[in-house]
Amino acid sequence: xxxLVESGGGLVQAGGSLRLSCAxxxxxxxxxxxxxxxxxxxxxxxxxxxxxxxxxTNYADSVKGRFTISRDNAKNTVYLQMNSLKPEDTAIYFCxxxxxxxxxxxxxxxxxxxxxxxx
Length: 119
Description:
By secondary structure, this protein is an all-beta fold. It has strands spanning 2-7, 10-13, 18-26, 30-39, 46-51, 57-59, 67-72, 77-82, 91-101, 104-109, 113-118. The strands form two sheets. Strands 2, 4, 5, 6, 9, 10 and 11 form a seven-stranded mixed sheet that branches. Strands 1-3-8-7 form a four-stranded antiparallel sheet, with no helix packed on it. It is elongated, with a radius of gyration of 14 Å.
């Protein structure tokens, strides 16, 4: 299977920046899309951004122009550069990867990293 490990969360003031990283590890796997989701207290998990292996990206309207997703396929790592952060961006951010391992296809999730934006 595939394991995802996130890093880079923390506390930042409004208007500040953070960069999240997520590295995938395992044996004999390939990854198609990778993405970032977030879940704020009392709310459902929502897509923030995702990126295909070919580099096509998709963003939630709420983060367009502020967040940038990128990936390093050689390192099986996806990044989320978050600029102009707002208090409403406060949430636990989860990394996601759609992977294949042998005949198994599935999603993998990271453990989540907390992002807190103070006003």
